[in-house]
Design goal:
Blueprint: E1 3-5, E2 38-40, E3 54-59, E4 62-69, E5 76-80, H1 94-99, E6 103-107, E7 116-117, H2 128-141, E8 147-151, H3 153-165, E9 170-176, H4 184-187, H5 193-198, H6 200-205, H7 208-229, H8 237-244, H9 252-263, H10 274-281, E10 290-295, H11 305-308, E11 316-322, H12 329-332, H13 334-344
Parallel strand pairs: 2-11, 5-6, 5-8, 8-9, 9-10, 10-11
Antiparallel strand pairs: 1-3, 3-4, 4-6, 4-7
Helix pairs in contact: 2-3
Pfam families: Abhydrolase_1
Domain AB hydrolase-1: 75-247
Protein name: Alpha/beta hydrolase
Protein backbone atom coordinates (compact mmCIF):
# COMPACT_ATOMS: atom_id res chain seq x y z
CA UNK A 1 0.00 0.00 0.00
CA UNK A 2 1.37 3.44 -0.89
CA UNK A 3 1.61 6.38 1.49
CA UNK A 4 2.93 9.93 1.06
CA UNK A 5 6.08 10.90 2.95
CA UNK A 6 7.97 14.14 3.27
CA UNK A 7 10.99 14.75 1.09
CA UNK A 8 14.49 14.58 2.54
CA UNK A 9 16.57 17.47 3.83
CA UNK A 10 18.74 19.48 1.49
CA UNK A 11 22.48 19.24 1.76
CA UNK A 12 24.92 22.14 1.60
CA UNK A 13 27.82 22.00 -0.80
CA UNK A 14 30.46 24.21 -2.28
CA UNK A 15 30.92 24.96 -5.96
CA UNK A 16 33.73 23.04 -7.65
CA UNK A 17 35.72 23.23 -10.86
CA UNK A 18 34.81 20.92 -13.72
CA UNK A 19 36.60 17.66 -14.38
CA UNK A 20 35.24 14.36 -15.55
CA UNK A 21 32.82 12.48 -17.74
CA UNK A 22 30.16 9.89 -17.12
CA UNK A 23 29.25 6.24 -17.48
CA UNK A 24 31.58 3.35 -17.69
CA UNK A 25 30.68 0.69 -20.13
CA UNK A 26 29.56 2.52 -23.23
CA UNK A 27 32.29 2.74 -25.85
CA UNK A 28 32.90 6.23 -27.22
CA UNK A 29 32.49 7.32 -30.78
CA UNK A 30 31.30 10.21 -32.87
CA UNK A 31 27.57 10.74 -32.75
CA UNK A 32 26.19 10.44 -36.26
CA UNK A 33 23.25 12.55 -37.36
CA UNK A 34 20.10 10.63 -38.18
CA UNK A 35 18.66 11.42 -41.57
CA UNK A 36 15.33 10.13 -40.30
CA UNK A 37 14.77 12.68 -37.55
CA UNK A 38 16.62 15.68 -36.15
CA UNK A 39 15.38 18.44 -33.92
CA UNK A 40 16.81 21.52 -32.26
CA UNK A 41 16.20 22.34 -28.63
CA UNK A 42 17.43 25.76 -27.45
CA UNK A 43 19.62 25.85 -24.32
CA UNK A 44 17.44 26.24 -21.25
CA UNK A 45 17.85 27.01 -17.59
CA UNK A 46 16.78 24.53 -14.97
CA UNK A 47 13.26 24.51 -13.55
CA UNK A 48 12.54 25.26 -9.90
CA UNK A 49 9.44 23.05 -9.83
CA UNK A 50 9.05 20.09 -7.48
CA UNK A 51 6.94 16.97 -7.27
CA UNK A 52 4.08 16.55 -4.83
CA UNK A 53 4.26 14.19 -1.85
CA UNK A 54 6.43 11.13 -2.48
CA UNK A 55 4.64 7.82 -2.13
CA UNK A 56 6.12 4.57 -0.79
CA UNK A 57 5.33 0.99 -1.77
CA UNK A 58 6.96 -2.28 -0.76
CA UNK A 59 8.17 -4.09 -3.87
CA UNK A 60 10.44 -7.12 -3.78
CA UNK A 61 13.04 -6.43 -1.12
CA UNK A 62 12.61 -2.68 -1.29
CA UNK A 63 10.43 0.11 -0.07
CA UNK A 64 10.36 2.22 -3.23
CA UNK A 65 9.72 5.93 -3.17
CA UNK A 66 8.05 7.35 -6.25
CA UNK A 67 6.27 10.40 -7.58
CA UNK A 68 3.01 10.00 -9.47
CA UNK A 69 1.15 12.38 -11.74
CA UNK A 70 -1.76 12.09 -14.13
CA UNK A 71 -5.02 10.11 -14.11
CA UNK A 72 -4.97 6.84 -12.17
CA UNK A 73 -6.72 5.03 -15.02
CA UNK A 74 -4.48 6.36 -17.79
CA UNK A 75 -1.93 4.35 -19.77
CA UNK A 76 1.24 4.07 -17.72
CA UNK A 77 4.68 5.48 -18.40
CA UNK A 78 7.57 4.82 -16.00
CA UNK A 79 10.44 7.33 -16.08
CA UNK A 80 13.83 6.05 -14.87
CA UNK A 81 16.72 8.29 -13.84
CA UNK A 82 20.46 7.66 -13.85
CA UNK A 83 23.58 8.45 -11.81
CA UNK A 84 24.21 10.99 -10.39
CA UNK A 85 20.64 12.20 -10.85
CA UNK A 86 17.21 11.48 -9.42
CA UNK A 87 13.51 11.86 -10.16
CA UNK A 88 13.90 15.59 -10.81
CA UNK A 89 15.44 14.83 -14.18
CA UNK A 90 11.78 14.39 -15.18
CA UNK A 91 10.29 17.32 -13.26
CA UNK A 92 9.22 19.05 -16.48
CA UNK A 93 8.56 15.88 -18.47
CA UNK A 94 5.97 14.40 -16.11
CA UNK A 95 3.43 17.27 -16.38
CA UNK A 96 3.55 17.11 -20.18
CA UNK A 97 2.77 13.41 -20.15
CA UNK A 98 0.12 13.75 -17.44
CA UNK A 99 -1.60 16.45 -19.48
CA UNK A 100 -1.74 14.00 -22.38
CA UNK A 101 -3.61 11.51 -20.19
CA UNK A 102 -0.75 9.31 -18.97
CA UNK A 103 -0.37 7.94 -15.48
CA UNK A 104 3.24 8.90 -14.83
CA UNK A 105 5.34 6.93 -12.32
CA UNK A 106 8.79 8.30 -11.45
CA UNK A 107 10.63 6.07 -8.94
CA UNK A 108 13.82 6.64 -7.03
CA UNK A 109 16.21 3.86 -7.97
CA UNK A 110 17.71 1.77 -5.17
CA UNK A 111 20.25 3.90 -3.34
CA UNK A 112 18.44 7.20 -3.99
CA UNK A 113 15.91 9.34 -2.18
CA UNK A 114 13.40 7.52 -0.01
CA UNK A 115 13.89 4.09 -1.61
CA UNK A 116 15.22 1.65 0.98
CA UNK A 117 16.49 -1.93 1.04
CA UNK A 118 14.30 -3.54 3.69
CA UNK A 119 16.70 -6.15 5.07
CA UNK A 120 19.83 -4.93 6.88
CA UNK A 121 21.61 -8.13 5.77
CA UNK A 122 20.69 -7.88 2.06
CA UNK A 123 23.60 -7.11 -0.30
CA UNK A 124 23.78 -3.49 -1.40
CA UNK A 125 23.75 -4.74 -4.96
CA UNK A 126 24.32 -2.44 -7.93
CA UNK A 127 24.76 -4.91 -10.81
CA UNK A 128 22.96 -3.96 -14.01
CA UNK A 129 20.16 -6.54 -13.85
CA UNK A 130 19.00 -5.63 -10.35
CA UNK A 131 17.58 -2.28 -11.44
CA UNK A 132 15.38 -3.98 -14.03
CA UNK A 133 14.29 -6.54 -11.44
CA UNK A 134 13.37 -3.68 -9.11
CA UNK A 135 11.21 -2.01 -11.78
CA UNK A 136 9.37 -5.26 -12.48
CA UNK A 137 8.73 -5.61 -8.73
CA UNK A 138 7.41 -2.04 -8.64
CA UNK A 139 5.07 -2.76 -11.55
CA UNK A 140 3.80 -5.87 -9.78
CA UNK A 141 3.26 -3.99 -6.52
CA UNK A 142 1.30 -1.26 -8.30
CA UNK A 143 -0.59 -3.84 -10.40
CA UNK A 144 0.79 -2.41 -13.65
CA UNK A 145 0.74 -5.06 -16.35
CA UNK A 146 2.49 -3.08 -19.09
CA UNK A 147 4.01 0.38 -19.39
CA UNK A 148 5.98 2.62 -21.68
CA UNK A 149 9.50 2.70 -20.21
CA UNK A 150 11.69 5.76 -20.70
CA UNK A 151 15.03 6.64 -19.16
CA UNK A 152 18.70 7.49 -19.42
CA UNK A 153 21.96 6.22 -17.95
CA UNK A 154 21.26 3.59 -15.23
CA UNK A 155 17.53 4.01 -15.78
CA UNK A 156 17.88 3.70 -19.55
CA UNK A 157 19.82 0.48 -19.07
CA UNK A 158 17.07 -0.93 -16.82
CA UNK A 159 14.45 0.01 -19.42
CA UNK A 160 16.46 -1.68 -22.19
CA UNK A 161 16.80 -4.83 -20.10
CA UNK A 162 13.07 -5.05 -19.45
CA UNK A 163 12.31 -4.44 -23.13
CA UNK A 164 14.74 -7.22 -24.10
CA UNK A 165 13.94 -9.83 -21.44
CA UNK A 166 10.33 -9.08 -20.52
CA UNK A 167 8.85 -7.49 -23.67
CA UNK A 168 5.36 -8.43 -22.50
CA UNK A 169 5.76 -5.82 -19.73
CA UNK A 170 7.04 -3.05 -22.02
CA UNK A 171 4.59 -1.32 -24.34
CA UNK A 172 7.36 0.79 -25.89
CA UNK A 173 10.82 2.12 -25.07
CA UNK A 174 12.49 5.54 -25.09
CA UNK A 175 16.21 5.44 -24.32
CA UNK A 176 18.68 8.31 -24.26
CA UNK A 177 22.04 7.15 -25.69
CA UNK A 178 20.49 3.99 -27.06
CA UNK A 179 21.32 0.38 -26.25
CA UNK A 180 23.02 0.28 -22.85
CA UNK A 181 23.03 -3.43 -22.00
CA UNK A 182 26.54 -4.78 -21.49
CA UNK A 183 28.47 -7.39 -19.52
CA UNK A 184 31.54 -7.84 -17.37
CA UNK A 185 33.23 -9.61 -20.26
CA UNK A 186 32.61 -6.73 -22.65
CA UNK A 187 33.93 -4.28 -20.08
CA UNK A 188 37.23 -6.15 -19.83
CA UNK A 189 38.17 -4.90 -23.28
CA UNK A 190 40.35 -1.78 -23.21
CA UNK A 191 38.87 1.36 -24.68
CA UNK A 192 40.79 4.11 -26.55
CA UNK A 193 42.89 6.24 -24.18
CA UNK A 194 40.61 9.26 -24.43
CA UNK A 195 37.64 7.14 -23.33
CA UNK A 196 39.61 5.68 -20.45
CA UNK A 197 40.49 9.23 -19.38
CA UNK A 198 36.85 10.31 -19.51
CA UNK A 199 35.88 7.32 -17.37
CA UNK A 200 38.49 8.11 -14.70
CA UNK A 201 35.98 7.80 -11.87
CA UNK A 202 35.37 4.09 -12.48
CA UNK A 203 39.01 3.40 -11.63
CA UNK A 204 38.86 5.75 -8.66
CA UNK A 205 35.85 3.82 -7.37
CA UNK A 206 37.82 0.58 -7.74
CA UNK A 207 40.04 1.68 -4.84
CA UNK A 208 39.26 2.01 -1.15
CA UNK A 209 40.49 5.60 -1.38
CA UNK A 210 37.86 6.19 -4.08
CA UNK A 211 35.08 4.68 -2.01
CA UNK A 212 36.07 6.82 0.97
CA UNK A 213 36.44 9.91 -1.20
CA UNK A 214 32.98 9.46 -2.72
CA UNK A 215 31.43 8.94 0.70
CA UNK A 216 33.05 12.12 2.05
CA UNK A 217 32.65 14.36 -0.98
CA UNK A 218 29.70 12.99 -2.96
CA UNK A 219 28.05 16.41 -3.39
CA UNK A 220 31.12 18.03 -4.94
CA UNK A 221 31.95 14.87 -6.87
CA UNK A 222 28.54 14.55 -8.47
CA UNK A 223 28.36 18.23 -9.30
CA UNK A 224 31.55 17.79 -11.33
CA UNK A 225 29.89 14.97 -13.25
CA UNK A 226 26.90 17.21 -14.01
CA UNK A 227 29.17 19.97 -15.28
CA UNK A 228 31.21 17.74 -17.56
CA UNK A 229 28.43 15.46 -18.81
CA UNK A 230 26.17 18.41 -19.64
CA UNK A 231 28.60 21.29 -20.27
CA UNK A 232 25.97 23.65 -21.71
CA UNK A 233 23.22 22.99 -19.18
CA UNK A 234 22.77 26.16 -17.13
CA UNK A 235 21.75 24.92 -13.70
CA UNK A 236 22.06 26.80 -10.42
CA UNK A 237 22.99 25.54 -6.97
CA UNK A 238 19.33 25.20 -5.93
CA UNK A 239 18.62 22.90 -8.87
CA UNK A 240 21.59 20.71 -8.06
CA UNK A 241 20.79 20.66 -4.31
CA UNK A 242 17.24 19.56 -5.08
CA UNK A 243 18.72 16.38 -6.56
CA UNK A 244 21.75 16.10 -4.25
CA UNK A 245 19.54 15.46 -1.24
CA UNK A 246 18.66 12.09 -2.79
CA UNK A 247 22.31 11.06 -2.33
CA UNK A 248 21.72 11.14 1.45
CA UNK A 249 20.24 7.65 1.08
CA UNK A 250 22.10 5.36 3.51
CA UNK A 251 22.77 2.81 0.75
CA UNK A 252 23.80 5.28 -1.94
CA UNK A 253 27.56 5.04 -1.66
CA UNK A 254 27.63 1.26 -1.32
CA UNK A 255 25.38 0.77 -4.37
CA UNK A 256 27.31 3.23 -6.55
CA UNK A 257 30.65 1.66 -5.65
CA UNK A 258 29.32 -1.86 -6.21
CA UNK A 259 27.79 -0.84 -9.54
CA UNK A 260 31.08 0.35 -11.00
CA UNK A 261 33.20 -2.39 -9.45
CA UNK A 262 30.77 -5.01 -10.76
CA UNK A 263 31.06 -3.61 -14.27
CA UNK A 264 34.84 -4.06 -14.16
CA UNK A 265 34.55 -7.57 -12.77
CA UNK A 266 36.00 -6.46 -9.43
CA UNK A 267 32.85 -7.33 -7.48
CA UNK A 268 30.42 -10.20 -7.84
CA UNK A 269 26.67 -9.96 -8.26
CA UNK A 270 24.09 -12.08 -6.50
CA UNK A 271 23.99 -15.69 -7.68
CA UNK A 272 20.25 -15.62 -8.22
CA UNK A 273 20.83 -13.22 -11.13
CA UNK A 274 23.63 -15.20 -12.81
CA UNK A 275 21.37 -16.69 -15.48
CA UNK A 276 19.86 -13.29 -16.22
CA UNK A 277 23.31 -11.74 -16.59
CA UNK A 278 24.32 -14.56 -18.96
CA UNK A 279 21.34 -13.70 -21.14
CA UNK A 280 22.25 -10.01 -21.07
CA UNK A 281 25.85 -10.82 -22.00
CA UNK A 282 24.51 -12.13 -25.32
CA UNK A 283 23.28 -8.60 -26.16
CA UNK A 284 19.63 -9.61 -26.69
CA UNK A 285 17.77 -7.70 -29.36
CA UNK A 286 14.74 -5.56 -28.60
CA UNK A 287 11.51 -5.95 -30.53
CA UNK A 288 9.20 -3.40 -28.85
CA UNK A 289 8.69 -0.01 -30.56
CA UNK A 290 11.67 2.17 -29.66
CA UNK A 291 12.92 5.72 -30.00
CA UNK A 292 16.52 6.48 -29.05
CA UNK A 293 17.75 10.00 -28.39
CA UNK A 294 21.14 11.68 -28.34
CA UNK A 295 22.14 15.22 -27.45
CA UNK A 296 24.75 17.11 -29.43
CA UNK A 297 26.67 18.17 -26.30
CA UNK A 298 26.76 14.90 -24.38
CA UNK A 299 30.00 15.01 -22.42
CA UNK A 300 29.74 11.37 -21.38
CA UNK A 301 31.23 8.54 -23.44
CA UNK A 302 28.54 7.18 -25.74
CA UNK A 303 28.22 5.13 -28.88
CA UNK A 304 27.19 6.48 -32.28
CA UNK A 305 23.63 5.46 -33.15
CA UNK A 306 24.86 3.28 -36.01
CA UNK A 307 26.65 1.07 -33.48
CA UNK A 308 23.44 0.00 -31.76
CA UNK A 309 20.68 0.51 -34.34
CA UNK A 310 20.77 -3.20 -35.22
CA UNK A 311 19.82 -4.13 -31.66
CA UNK A 312 16.31 -2.78 -32.26
CA UNK A 313 14.46 -5.14 -34.56
CA UNK A 314 10.95 -3.74 -34.16
CA UNK A 315 9.65 -0.32 -35.14
CA UNK A 316 12.53 2.02 -34.45
CA UNK A 317 13.62 5.61 -34.82
CA UNK A 318 16.68 7.52 -33.66
CA UNK A 319 16.53 11.25 -32.95
CA UNK A 320 19.49 13.60 -32.66
CA UNK A 321 18.71 16.61 -30.49
CA UNK A 322 20.81 19.70 -31.16
CA UNK A 323 21.05 22.95 -29.24
CA UNK A 324 23.67 22.13 -26.62
CA UNK A 325 21.90 19.12 -25.07
CA UNK A 326 24.02 16.96 -22.78
CA UNK A 327 23.76 13.69 -20.90
CA UNK A 328 20.84 14.62 -18.62
CA UNK A 329 18.63 14.83 -21.68
CA UNK A 330 15.12 14.79 -20.13
CA UNK A 331 15.95 17.63 -17.75
CA UNK A 332 17.72 19.65 -20.43
CA UNK A 333 15.07 19.23 -23.14
CA UNK A 334 11.86 17.96 -21.51
CA UNK A 335 9.73 18.74 -24.54
CA UNK A 336 11.82 16.57 -26.86
CA UNK A 337 11.86 13.73 -24.34
CA UNK A 338 8.12 13.94 -23.69
CA UNK A 339 7.43 14.11 -27.42
CA UNK A 340 9.37 10.89 -27.94
CA UNK A 341 7.35 9.16 -25.22
CA UNK A 342 4.06 10.31 -26.76
CA UNK A 343 5.10 9.35 -30.29
CA UNK A 344 6.84 6.00 -29.69
CA UNK A 345 3.51 4.22 -29.30
CA UNK A 346 2.45 5.44 -32.75
CA UNK A 347 5.51 4.32 -34.74
Amino acid sequence: MSNPISTQRRRLLSSSTALAALTLLDRAGTVHASAAYQTTSPPRTASSASFGPIRQVEAGGLSIGYAEEGPANGPVVILLHGWPHDIHSFIDVAPLLAAAGYRVIVPYLRGYGSTRILSPSAPRNGQQSIFAVDVIALMDALKIDKAVLAGFDWGGRAANIIAAIWPERCRALVSASGYLISSQEANRKPAPPQVELQAWFQYYFATERGAAGYAEQRDEFNKLIWQRASPRFRFDDATYLRTAQSFDNPDHVAIVIHNYRWRLGLAQGERQYDDLEKRLAQAPKISVPTITLEGDANGAPHQPPAAYAGQYIGKYQHRDISGGIGHNLPQETPSAFAQAVLQVVTL
